[in-house]
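Chain X:
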Amino acid sequence: MKIKTLFLIGLSALFLSSHPFSYPSSEILPTEPSVDFVNLKDGDQVSNPFKVIFKVSGLNIAPAGELKEGSGHHHLLINQTYIDKGITIPADESHLHFGKGQTETELYLNSGTYTLTLQFADGYHRSYGKTLSKMIKIEVK
């Protein structure tokens, strides 16, 4: 009886140690959605006119006017901080909308230091908040 019990304990230990949940997964876990500037980084110096290219990861780009789950479009805020989640982004000279799904633009700004904030929003221009924004400072020569 003792041999049979020891055998079952050993077999159980072997099974549990080889169980897939006992080892860290080698799968890459999905990352949180994010936005970023493709061609600019914090502290860059640029000359006029300059191109700004933006990207989103983890969500789809879709034109404004239609609410689609998991999608939205870019907004570029000049000398503005991120917009809180759920707040509609205004449309003015400091809040540029890319509601056709554009992922780049060309800017001309007077010489000086600027804060550029990339903000992603849903089809109704409602901000996804701080987690889907990216802020950098640049200097225009």
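Chain Y:
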Amino acid sequence: MKHQVAHKDDVLTVGQVADRCGIATSAVRYYDDHGLISSQRTPGGQRRFEREAIRRISFILAAQRVGRSLSEIRETLDALPHDHAPSQAEWTLVSTDWRERLDEQINALADLRDRLDECIGCGCLSLERCAIYNPDDRAVTLGAGPRFLLGDSASDVANA
């Protein structure tokens, strides 16, 4: 069931915020309960949100989509003003802080994509038995985890 659309100057109900953001009302309540957005309570205890909650939720959803934790998101949102919708300059400051981390993540994903192609290209499908990249499972000497995907190379294995 669609909720009634509020006028520009109105505060929004949980349902209106949820409809506008394309999320469940329980998610709106969760974000509110965990301090990612804020609400006022009516005399009857119902939550009411300023329109800027939509912008904050949009940011939360975008940040989650690229793998940011709620604690990282909260830290970022806490750096923004709570008494008014953030200005373009304030959002730019936040995005500048995230740009380097997003670039690192993009590079790591591209590297993962490229290394997965190399890794399964020989047909053995096993780093443990791979005679080219990991003969006799020597990558174990470099440490735990997927060594090649973490940045080690076949030459690191040869030198170990």
